[in-house]
Amino acid sequence: MTGDTVGTRLRRGILTRLEWVWDELRQLTTASPARFAVLIFVALILLFTALYSLPAAAADGKPTSLADALFTAVSTICVTGLSTVDMYSHWSPLGHVITYVGVNVGALGVLTLASILGLVISKRLGLRAKLIAAGDSNPLRAHGGPVNEGQTVRLGEVGQLLATVALSTLIIEAALTLLIYPALIVAGIDPVTALWEAPYYAAMSFTNTGFVPNAGGLTPFADDYFFLGVLMAGVFLGSIGFPVIFTLWRHQWHVRRWSLHTKLTLITTVILFFAGAIVFLSLEYVNPKTFGSMDAWDTVFQSFFLSAMTRSGGFSVVDIGELNGSSLVAGSMLMFVGGGSASTAGGIKVTTLAVLALAVWSEARGRQSVEAFGRRIPSDVQRVALSVVAWGATIVALSTITITQITKAPVELVLFDVISGFATVGLSTGLTAELPDSAIYVLAATMFMGRVGTVTLAAAVAATARSQLYSMPVERPIVG
User: Fold this and answer.
1) d(Cα 153, Cα 148) in Å, to the nearest integer?
2) Mean pLDDT in runs of 10 for the chain (480 residues)?
3) CA-based angle 417:211:180, to the nearest 5?
4) Alpha helix (H) ranges present in 221-375?
5) According to the 3-state scheme, what is the secondary structure of the chain?
6) Is residue 474 in some structural domain?
7) Is residue 115 within 8 Å of 133, Cβ to Cβ?
8) Comparing C-alpha atoms, which of 332, 355, 341, 353 is closest to residue 451?
9) Count of structural domains, the chain
10) What is the pLDDT of residue 214?
11) Which pLDDT belongs to residue 140?
12) Does 262 map to a domain?
């Protein structure tokens, strides 16, 4: 028996076993893809916690503490960007590679990742796999039951969506790398070092994570508008979501063919981007510790940069801890909203805000239905949006109260970092690095719930929609 024959049989045996394991997982989790998402996320976090705990992953060659390793793993897989250690000096080259791989894995979304894995193993994408993958593009699909309303991405298009996710990630990060590399060279970075830092910055911008590969962070690039502009472009592309990228790729500038989800995402994102910049410009213009020492052009540009980063980017040029209290509140509001659905950004999502705003506007005008761009938004979508906001606010409130009680820190600082963790933004007032272990675990749980909790909740709410052959008598309580 030749070595090639043995090797071929071994590979076939491994693939057969992997396919069997995959089929078993699909059988167990098809009824609840949302539960599958949580399972995969937990498994990834445990795996990366073990990797970060390795002595070889730390620069000093010593094992990292469980609290710091777990927090870094959660922050990496949830593409948050918060850290309890100095991400540049604490980790060895192996640790930085683990971080780079982790953020790209976490950015894809666990349901998408699981579907791609199943496609690779089984060489096919059946109905069950399509239902799982569709859960990342629309939480209303994630309960696995029938959905009567039109979908952002139909089941027949799921295969194309998965290809778009994989290809867009590779292409966008490669393009960002090509743009960032010469900027690093001009800034005086060693060409060999820039070969690593360029793809690292590209990944951290597109995945909306915000980790930096150098000691000074963005301080050396504070006046490099090209470099900062590229980072903003990467954050924007990552935050609009893969379904929007899929729609733009298919229909390009044929706006009339864009889905309602795409239109709401882009319009709300642009409005919040400019509104945030105006707010930061007006609140920080005379603050000598932030924008007060800059000229007019620098102030305007940095206001837009800060507005983009509070949406989920996580990069910062100014010291967030030096912002005025009013700016911290404004930043907290922007972070809570976050980016687009099925994106690398966190928060309650811009479409959630848009749906609620349209519902309020329709109610104010006395309309019976919520409509936008010639389409009616069904009541179950409104209910999911309201539930996501309510539970998101509840998670933030409970986490803020708990951490404030543990640390006795000013509540405005705690609230900012908690929302940053919940919305997977990564900006910090400096409080996160000083948290005791008990508070670290609370904030890690907040990041986890912020990344997977709202989607799981949306799926659970959607799953409760059942046909009912009778209705209860109507009675209206007093509201307001």
Assistant:
1) 13
2) 62 68 57 65 91 94 94 93 92 94 80 50 44 46 43 50 73 94 90 92 92 85 91 92 82 83 92 95 91 88 94 89 92 92 84 92 86 86 86 94 95 94 92 94 93 61 55 74
3) 135
4) 225-240, 242-251, 260-284, 296-308, 325-337, 350-364
5) CCHHHHHHHHHHHHHHHHHHHHHHHHHHHCCCHHHHHHHHHHHHHHHHHHHHHCHHHECCCCCCCHHHHHHHHHHHHCCCCCCCCCCCCCECHHHHHHHHHHHHHHHHCHHHHHHHHHHHHHCCCCHHHHHHHHHHHCHHHCCCCCCCCCCCCCHHHHHHHHHHHHHHHHHHHHHHHHHHHHHHHHCCCCHHHHHHHHHHHHHHHHCCCCCCCCCCCCHHHCCCHHHHHHHHHHHHHHHHCHHHHHHHHHHCCCHHHCCHHHHHHHHHHHHHHHHHHHHHHHHHCCCCCCCCCCCHHHHHHHHHHHHHHHHHHCCCCCCHHHCCHHHHHHHHHHHHHCCCCCCCCCCCCHHHHHHHHHHHHHHHCCCCCEEECCEEECHHHHHHHHHHHHHHHHHHHHHHHHHHHHHCCCHHHHHHHHHHHHCCCCCCCCCHHHCCHHHHHHHHHHHHHHHHHHHHHHHHHHHCCCCCCCCCCCCCCCCC
6) no
7) yes
8) 341
9) 1
10) 86
11) 45
12) yes
Q: What is the pLDDT of residue 47?
A: 94
The residue range of the domain holding 428 is: 12-463
Residues in the chain: 480
**pLDDT at residue 274 in the model:** 96
- 388: enclosing H helix or E strand: helix 379-407
- Give residue 468's pLDDT: 59
Q: Is residue 100 part of a domain?
A: yes
Is pTM beyond 0.85? Reply is no
pLDDT at 252: 80
Q: Cβ(73)–Cβ(451) under 8 Å?
A: no
**Per-residue confidence (pLDDT) for residue 120, from 0 to 100:** 46
- What pLDDT score does 38 carry? 73
DSSP state at residue 79:
T
Kind of pairing, strands 375-377 and 370-372?
antiparallel
* Residues 441, 449: Cα–Cα separation, whole Å: 12
H-helix or E-strand containing 372? strand 370-372
Query: Does a structural domain hold residue 477?
Result: no
